[in-house]
Amino acid sequence: MINRVSRHWCSRTLLSSLGVIFITLFYTSGCERTNERRLQGYVEGEFVYVASPVPGVLEALHVQRGARVAADDPLFSLEEKPEKALRDEAQARLTQAQATLEDLRKGRRPSEIESIEAQLKQATAALALAEKELARQDELSRSGATTPQDLDRARSQHDQNRQRVAQLEADLKTAHLGARSDQIAAAEANVRALEAALAAAQWSLSQKHRSAPQAGLVFDTLFRDGEWVPAGRPVVALLPPANVKVRAFVPEMQVHNLHPGDPVQVIVDGAPGPLAGQISFISPRAEYTPPVIYSRENRSKLVFMIEVTFAPQTAATLHPGQPVDVGL
């Protein structure tokens, strides 16, 4: 009786042990499958470096590290006295050239035109008198009451007065025309050149005040007030939310199941829950973990980089360099 009970107890103990082993193996394999779908990654930020194409002393830095700015918010200002002087000089040169062009397009001054008109009236009156004298001398010549020399003298005087009238009419027309067309064309070209110079001076002056090209986080400021900023050197580093992404590396056996736009879950330490993102990029180039050997045994070390993007409000909670887990 005792042996029968002992055998029964041993059988139950053996079944219980096998059940525990089966459950352990089941959950272990499930965890392994779950871990296969979870990748390690990190947060990456692509910064926007705001600089000025012209040099100058940093007069005012309007933002601080860690602040958030909207698009077109002022970031910094450089000393602008040299650019203002160049702008004013270009404006003065343009004003002078425009005045010269207008003067060339105009005729002579009104008093000069009035003088020519008065001379034309005198010449016209003299021509009328010469015509009468010529007619009288011609009639006297036919009756023999005058000499041929008097007739020739009257005819010569008439011709001179007629040419004088023609000359003054041409002078009056020219006085209304202004300068020659070539001079006006040269003056117009000079005005266009000075307009371009003024636009360049105004653009250089506008570059002394830089604003945020888009909304984002002021990640860093690289100069302080009073320091000399060379041309093209960044003063402020911005991190827009759209430039925050997660990078992870997918094994070769899983990459063929992924596509741009696929949703993923990103787990961040300390976050209340996973963050929703989507795959935005899958690298077409394979990368290897060492040793770099093309062999069947090391194929499991072949990985492809993917990038995950987020909605702006989600991206604002992430920090570059932060380690994360990516659940596929």
Tertiary shape: rod-shaped
Mean pLDDT: 83
Number of strands: 15
Q: Gap between N and C termini, in Å?
A: 59 Å
Helix content: 40-55%
The total count of helices amounts to 7
Secondary-structure element order, as H and E? HEEEEEHHHHEEEEEHEEEEHE
Strand fraction: 15-25%
Kindly name the structural category. alpha+beta
Please give the radius of gyration in angstroms: 48 Å
3D architecture notes:
The protein has 328 residues and is α+β, with helices and mostly antiparallel strands. It has three domains: 37-44 and 241-327, Elongation Factor Tu (Ef-tu), domain 3 (Beta Barrel), CATH 2.40.30.170; 48-75 and 212-239, OB fold (Dihydrolipoamide Acetyltransferase, E2P); 87-203. The chain has seven helices and 15 strands. α2 packs antiparallel against α5 (181-206) and α3 (110-143) runs antiparallel to α4 (148-177). The longest helix has 35 residues, at 2-36. The protein starts with a helix and ends with a strand. Residues 1-34 have low confidence and may be disordered.
Main attributes of the structure:
7 helices; OB fold (Dihydrolipoamide Acetyltransferase, E2P); 328 residues; six-stranded antiparallel barrel; disordered N terminus; Elongation Factor Tu (Ef-tu), domain 3; four-stranded antiparallel sheet; rod-shaped
Describe the structure concisely:
This protein has 328 residues and is α+β, with helices and mostly antiparallel strands. Helix content is 48%, strand content 24%. It has helices spanning 2-36, 81-105, 110-143, 148-177, 181-206, 252-255, 312-315; strands at 38-45, 48-51, 56-61, 68-69, 74-78, 209-211, 216-221, 228-229, 234-239, 244-251, 263-268, 275-282, 287-288, 302-309, 323-327.
